[in-house]
Amino acid sequence: MDPKTILKSYFGYDSFRSNQEEIINTVLQKRDCLVLMPTGGGKSLCYQIPAIAMQGTAVIISPLISLMKDQVESLRINGIEAAALNSGNDFSADTVVRRKCLDGTLKLLYISPEKLLAESMFLLRNMNISLFAIDEAHCISQWGHDFRPEYTQLNILHQEFPQVPIVALTATADKITRNDIITQLQLQDPQIFISSFDRPNLSLTVKRGYATKEKDNYILNFIKARPLESGIIYCLSRKTTEKIAKFLSEKGIRCSIYHAGLTQHDRDVAQLRFQRDDVQVICATIAFGMGIDKSNVRWVIHYNLPKSIESFYQEIGRAGRDGAPADTILFYSLADVVQLSQFAKDSGQKEINLDKLHQMRKYAESNVCRRRILLNYFGEQRDYDCDNCDVCENPPHRFDGTEYIQMALSAVKRTDESIRTATIVEILKGIASPTVRRKGYNQLKTFGVGKALSTNDWQDYLLQMLQMGFIEIAYDQSNIVKITDSGYDILYGRKRAELCELDHTVKETLKPKRRLHLQIPTITIPGLPETTGVEDKQLFEALRTLRRQCADEENFPPYIVFSDKVLHSLAMIKPTTLETFGYIQGIGEFKKQKYGLRFIALIQKFV
Ligand code: ADP
Ligand code: ZN
Q1: In which domain, by residue range, is 217 found?
Q2: Which one of 96, 437, 516, 575 is most buried, counting C-beta atoms within 10 A?
């Protein structure tokens, strides 16, 4: 079968997302590749489809048992032979899996790195391996936040199995990690695929100036406004998770706690109850996350400021993996900044961690589109606003700042991009500091052109320019400022840009953020009227209940049966025949046969 047919018949989707098809074809040509895609971007299909299309068994290396379990269940429910080998298996289950590996009936084998190393001489040698996929490949890098020493031994893959292609996948984008993955896995002339890191379905909001009590009440009202939607509250300390969970439980919200101080058993139970929708909310430290594939997390709240944008992005990324709208809220307070700065200073990598915190603060303090800041941080230059963050919705006052930006960029240019922000401000303000005099910057044409503005204004405008991606700071070259390509567009007058006025008054809205219209494409199904784009809310609830029943029967989490997005489509389109049911995106042949009649019978009551 060709990739497109597999996509439709096994996974129920009509079209590939960006890069997926190219990646799949590269793997099919047995070429190594490195795939960088945000959480929820659709990495799994990039190796699952080649695994189905190729002869033999694909070996997927995954760091956590819970991740493997989720993946295996999702594959099997789509009619694909998959299994996992890990320390969680009992002996007889292991034997069955091994037999299937040897006789080639298994299409995908998930395995932990420890187990892989142990098996490499025996089981793996006797199998017909189609490809290796390294999931969460950033775990190989010591620079990342999830370093796992076992991953560093994966260099044996190419040494022992030189003819088998490797596809490494991660949602961590930075260059150091990327190069680490390539060198350590010894990837051969790999094709590198970098997808946009944008997650347009996530709304972004920052709340400032909340006292603890107000914060708790805000959260309570927020959850009450979404009675059926699961979410995660991330806290800095274990104590806070317990405090907030107690508060919410007393108000009748079903919630669990998750942190590294609990026993493994208690953590597993908490995670399972959340995945199965037995509890609505999980109050967690950052210990909670990597093992979570739950696709219907509808919101993530940060009770405290995260320590870096990488962590923040990964944590909010756990919302809306199914592509339906999801909300994220970050509470920002001075107390957090003080505490986190202290942590950073006491850490082994003081400079790096302080800088990461600084970037995080910039996001929280920003008065330009927050998504632009995030994307710029990941190296994606974006020249339009997102319309789905609090700044875009409540815009601060802006003016055409092209001339100011040109003044600043020209100061950078005339000093050969060799100075830091403080010196730029001195030049603009016409301050003859020792550095300025020593270097003769007081002779520049730009010297003093920005006298009329205050130092604070200039600092803030430089911050905004950094946020908008017109300049970059070379942290490896004593923080000197460099002009980006989009900066040159402004400097040479090819584009104009706005700046925000400095405004220190805090504007806040207490009401929950407006929901984006559900992004379900209008589809015309033969024999059904065209969809109106409006879903039947009662039907949606009934579908949720049925999904829950089906999931319980087989001991699956509900989202494995159908994603929220599929339920929304069903509640909108209301198909009443098996054929039309199968047109819904995300319903493949196997699920259609397995669940079609039960769901159709329910839908019929609503038409
Ligand atoms: P990642 O591993 O990158 O976090 P997943 O592979 O779990 O993301 O995919 C996220 C969601 O997107 C899943 O619900 C998946 O079924 C869906 N998805 C993946 N590819 C497509 C596609 N081509 N069309 C529609 N949905 C897709
Ligand atoms: Zn925005």
Answers
A1: 202-393
A2: 575
